[in-house]
From TrEMBL:
Biased composition (Basic and acidic residues): 35-55, 95-130, 139-195, 203-249, 257-279
A cellular component term, taken from the record's GO annotations: cytosol
Taxonomic lineage from the root: Bacteria, Bacillati, Actinomycetota, Actinomycetes, Micrococcales
Start and end residues of each Helicase ATP-binding domain: 351-529
GO molecular function terms listed in the Swiss-Prot or TrEMBL record: ATP binding; hydrolase activity; nucleic acid binding; RNA helicase activity
One Pfam entry name: Helicase_C
SUPFAM superfamilies in the cross-refs: P-loop containing nucleoside triphosphate hydrolases
Name this protein carries in UniProt: Superfamily II DNA/RNA helicase
Family of this protein: Belongs to the DEAD box helicase family.
Residue stretches making up the Helicase C-terminal domain: 540-700
Organism: Microbacterium saperdae
Disordered: annotated segments: 1-297
Keywords on record: ATP-binding, Helicase, Hydrolase, Nucleotide-binding
DNA sequence: AAAAAAT
């Protein structure tokens, strides 16, 4: 797409959502199907505000618009861009997503064991097919299901009004409004764009798969075509894979199709908590789905069968190489240099799918190699899409990777940059807390892959300094987290700036229905992967819970971190993190903290101090809970127990990475035992609860200090 | 409560 239409017409039009008519109408509609509680939401104010602004852009908009109004000044944006103001009223889609996410969280936190009728207050969920009498097919269905049964919603809900029928009607309506120049895309917006990216530019010859690549892209288009035609019948008809128990887990993500990497073992554990756990089981409902165009079905099924067979025999996995998966030799070499000689399971599963151009949802537990799983094929694909083209000065990015924290964005770049550079592509980090200058400078020179956090990325988009219109791949790392309340809206807006039909990759160790809002709007027939057998039995992390007296807490913590290896301590608040770091320091144990109250320089430096081993103790808030990889943290201490099982999983996942051993200890008081039990149950973690006082041997043991060694080190 | 933009 020509760059020229970007800053002016293109982006604002893209943002504008004519589907719902005038603001007044949507406001009315908002009330129509929405329960009263909606009115109490704080977001409402913001939304209404945004809507107002948008309705009178020329008048009221300026005082709030950032940046200069005269050309040549920093932050200048042409007035026409006003229509593309970032803040908008919530679309039905967004609200659906928000409710979705909120519902999941609420259930996770409070209602897991509640009776099913609990959900009846949430009609949208129910008719998602969860309780549909049609049987397991409802769950299995990867088309209607994946779209969350848009055909099934009760009439009258505005949300459904938009979703009813082919979702493309909504898409094209929006496109129509953007102006005539986009009509050329209307018939096959998503697929064709993607196909063009790979096909039109000589990708196939470069691909190790050769001509196969071309057919895969064609396959994408065909599949989507098939889906459009046959969605209805799939909705009701494909019951061929009834899985026991699926109907009893209505809440979970059964709507997604899952292509298993290997047979699931955790499935059989039969924990009661599974009922309400929005993860694992339903993601594994079926190995591979014969749901696409029949012609290509077979080829793809073969691929998955192969993976499955290999995975069953763990030994056979070792036979797959990155090259086999479709990555070029430069990339393979670089991966080897990064220490990834052979693909991990999640990588073996997702790399081919990404290379095909499919949207992918993937869950692999912490430390299982997700970054490479999306990063390596992403680079390959960007490369293919540019094959034969000159890398122009000032070209706009072809891929974007979003992460929830700056440290994670940095870390992802550290992994992906060498891969990209090995094939002549450039990456840049775009995150807040640092001056824009360098980032903007890099963008001006031309960057192929952008890695960053939502705030700054959106900021630069709005300043007209980042153009995502040519961005054909978008990755959300920690996708479920990115779909949480404060995150999802900017993420959605950013994704809307990417090219029509851009490929979407969602990765997380705890991927669940929380991503529904995004999946619904942005993904087309995603492949869904998880690595089977990722239960505690196969984990290398040992979990323990210490039940302590509150007055002992400080001393016990100090005793726990007074040890040889690297220790990561999690605190609930920034202030407490600071306090603990200081306390440890005062006790002669060098420690630093990591949290959002620190400036970015300190954040980076403190994390680096742990990585480099200059300190062995880092006290962090949940800013460090997800994704952060420090090689050899062998003890994670939760000074405050987390509230959410997902947080527990991510925090504890800072240790025991890539098969190494690690230990997690959580401190709780007696009063918290019950909550803790429930949370561990959701996390599917067995951990002994042990009473501990300040000088108990158990603390020495957990710290890894046998008494004698302790004496030696003192 | 934390995180994510800058002001």
């Amino acid at each position: 797409m020509p760059k020229s239409k970007k800053p002016q017409g293109g982006r604002p039009a893209r943002n504008f959502e004519p589907r719902y008519g005038a603001n007044k109408t949507s406001f009315h509609d908002r009330h129509h199907g929405a329960p009263a509680r909606d009115d109490a939401r704080p977001e409402r104010g913001g939304r209404a505000d945004a809507g107002e602004r948008r309705s009178a852009p020329a008048a009221g908009g300026y005082d709030r618009r950032p940046g200069s109004r005269s050309a040549g000044h920093r932050g200048y944006r042409p007035a026409e861009a006003e229509g593309g103001a970032p803040k908008q009223r919530w679309s039905a889609q967004e609200r659906a997503g928000r409710d979705e996410a909120r519902g999941i969280r609420n259930r996770a936190e409070s209602g897991r064991r509640e009776a099913p009728h609990h959900r009846d207050e949430r009609p949208r969920r129910d008719d998602r097919g969860a309780q549909r009498p049609t049987g397991p097919g409802t769950y299995r269905d990867d088309r209607g299901g994946q779209r969350f049964g848009r055909d099934e919603r009760p009439a009258g809900d505005q949300r459904r009004g938009f979703r009813d029928g082919d979702h493309r009607s909504g898409d094209s309506a929006r496109r129509d409004d953007r102006g005539g120049q986009r009509f050329d895309r209307d018939d096959r917006p998503r697929r064709d764009d993607r196909g063009a990216a790979a096909q039109g530019r000589g990708s196939a010859d470069r691909s190790p798969r050769g001509a196969g690549d071309r057919s895969f892209d064609a396959d994408r288009a065909r599949r989507s075509f098939d889906r459009d035609r046959t969605q209805r019948s799939f909705d009701g008809g494909r019951d061929e894979r009834p899985r026991n128990g699926e109907r009893s887990r209505p809440v979970t993500g059964g709507a997604y199709r899952t292509e298993r990497v290997r047979p699931l073992t955790s499935d059989t554990r039969g924990r009661p908590a599974h009922n309400e756990r929005p993860s694992r089981n339903n993601w594994n409902a079926a190995p591979s789905a014969p749901s696409r165009g029949a012609k290509f079905e077979q080829a793809e099924d073969v691929v998955h069968e192969r993976l499955e067979a290999q995975a069953v025999q763990a030994v056979e996995v070792a036979d797959v190489t990155f090259g086999d998966l479709g990555l070029g030799s430069n990339i393979v070499e670089t991966l080897a240099g990064l220490g990834a000689a052979k693909p991990f399971a999640i990588q073996a599963a997702s790399i081919p799918a990404v290379l095909e151009g499919r949207d992918v949802l993937a869950r692999g537990r912490t430390g299982s190699g997700k970054t490479i799983a999306f990063g390596a094929p992403l680079v390959e694909r960007v490369l293919q899409s540019q094959a034969g083209k000159r890398r122009e000065f000032g070209r706009s990015p072809r891929a974007i990777i979003l992460a929830p924290t700056r440290e994670l964005a940095l870390q992802i770049d550290r992994t992906i940059q060498p891969i990209a550079r090995s094939v002549g592509l450039f990456t840049t980090q775009i995150y807040g807390g640092v001056p824009q200058g360098r980032q903007v400078g890099a963008l001006k020179k031309g960057v192929d892959i952008v890695i960053g956090t939502p705030g700054r990325i959106e900021d630069l988009i709005n300043q007209g300094k980042l153009d995502l219109s040519d961005c054909r791949i978008a990755v959300l790392d920690e996708a479920d987290h990115m779909c949480e309340l404060g995150f999802v809206e900017p993420v959605q807006r950013i994704l809307r700036h990417t090219a029509d039909g851009s490929q979407k990759l969602l990765f997380s160790a705890t991927l669940d229905r929380e991503v529904a809002a995004l999946v619904d709007e942005f993904l087309v027939e995603p492949a869904v992967f998880e690595v089977a057998g990722e239960d505690q039995g196969s984990s290398t992390i040992e979990h323990r819970v210490l039940v302590i007296e509150h007055r002992d807490k400080a001393d016990i913590l100090t005793a726990l971190v007074d040890r040889e290896g690297k220790t990561l301590v999690f605190a609930r608040t920034r202030a407490y993190a600071d306090m603990l770091a200081e306390q440890f320091d005062d006790a002669g144990i060098p420690a630093v903290s990591l949290h959002g109250d620190l400036n970015q320089a300190k954040r980076t430096r403190n994390l680096e101090r742990l990585t480099s081993g200059r300190v062995n103790v880092l006290v962090a808030t949940d800013v460090a809970a997800r994704g952060i990889h420090v090689d050899d943290i062998d003890l994670v201490v939760q000074a405050d127990a987390p509230d959410e099982y997902k947080t527990y999983l991510h925090r504890s996942g800072r240790t025991g990475r890539a098969g190494r051993t690690g230990r997690v200890v959580t401190l709780i008081t007696r009063q918290r035992q019950r909550r803790m039990t429930e949370m561990l149950d959701r996390a599917e973690i067995d951990a002994p609860f042990e009473n501990a006082r300040v000088n108990d041997d158990i603390i020495e043991e957990i710290a890894g200090r046998v008494p004698t060694a302790a004496q030696l080190t003192r």
